[in-house]
What we know:
Blueprint: H1 2-18, H2 23-42, H3 50-76, H4 83-100, H5 108-131, H6 139-163, H7 166-170, H8 174-270, H9 277-301, E1 309-312, H10 313-327, E2 334-338, E3 343-346, H11 348-365, E4 372-380, E5 387-390, E6 396-404, H12 411-416, H13 434-444, E7 448-454, E8 458-466, H14 468-471
Parallel strand pairs: 2-4
Antiparallel strand pairs: 1-3, 4-6, 5-7, 6-8, 7-8
Helix pairs in contact: 1-2, 1-8, 2-3, 3-4, 3-5, 4-5, 5-6, 6-8, 8-9, 9-10, 9-11, 9-13, 10-11, 11-13
Amino acid sequence: MLFLAVGCFTFGCVALISVTNSIVVRWWGLGYIFVGVSVALLALRGIAPDYFSIQGGNTTAFIGTGLMLMALYRYREPDVFPKIALGWIAVSVVSFLLIVNPPISADFWQRVLLVSFLFCINQILAVTTVLGFQRPRTRLQRILIGVQLTLAAVFAFRVVWVGAELPEMLQWPVAVNTIFYFLAVMTAFVQGPLFLSLIREDADREVLQARENLARQEASRAAEQRLQAMRLQTEKAETIQNFSKGVVHDANNIVGTLDLGYRELSRELKAGHTARPEVLNLMGNALDHARVTISGLVALSDDSLPGLEAVTVESLMDAVKGILRYRVGDDDQVTFNVSAGLIVRTNPALATNALLNLIQNACEASRGKGPVAVTVRACDGELGGDWRTGRQFDGRWVSFAIHNSGGHLSSDQIERMFEPGYTTKGAQSGHGYGLLMVRKTAERTGGALMVESSPQDGVTFYYCMPLLEEEQ
């Protein structure tokens, strides 16, 4: 008895000390401490008073085994308070104290019958609880259930033995008594490490599952990154392809024009004629086209500040008109209304390329729906528009307004139209970098860019430059 008492008490203390963050292990360890104390008190039967040894020992045993039953219930359902186990403790303590005290004052075998019955119920409840664990059935769980069933059978055998009054008839043989205590002690004591091992097994399984989930997540993340990289590479390839098509288209036009002019000029010179001015103008416009195309590419590839100079609006628009005739060919497709005497500070090549992009886009959008109107005038006040980027002018500035009646741009289109690679023309006719060149040119040369759109009035782009007098 002393060995069992010390063993249970020590095991309970170790359980409390080793794991302090689990209410299940706390109840389980505290239950073993109570059982150890109860065994020590019952060992004093005949030496200490009955109210201390018998009543105190059995009451403590009920509380201890009840706490262990509460731990099993809590482990099965962590969010539910174990009311059944608590009720078993209350019924066991109250019923035992009632029969051992007056007026009942039950004799020894009546007390044994009640205690054996209560502990048998306790183990049956424990078995049903362990069977309800939401976990894969393992060898440890089967062993724990087998031990609990054995202990329940031992107490059930004692209930039947005492209930049939066999002890009085056979004087409860010493061998049977020894076997009972041995089985009760061993099966009760073995449950402690078995249940804690079960908890450890579940914890190890959760850790392993967490590692496997983490490994799967990392593998999935790596696969997603590879897929994203492949998608990005594909998008880059498509962007380069579309951009190359646009550049090649412009280059072919330039080379074709220069080749045509060269052949025409060569033919006339061989025939002894002088070069016609229109042929030289055609070749000059093609060269201007090449220069502004290169300027646009520079605007995309270089973030350094370009060289700015004073430029008259008339000279800027003459360059635009010359290249525009070469690009568009129809003088009636674009109308110009340019205020005289305006001087701006900008980079001529970059500004020409930006204005050509805006006018040519407007011509393509309004084809068959009326001419594109280009209005250049001096303005003052704050800039407005549905979308704007670049500088906010404090004084006067020059507005290059390019208007077309070819339709209406949605707010989403306006937000995205200046993004790299965005185009509504399709891969065969647009590379999606023209308006990006315009935006970067406006931002890098100290200008501004605005867009206004409505279903009734169409679309107007405002390319704005600082008026030179205000700069001085």
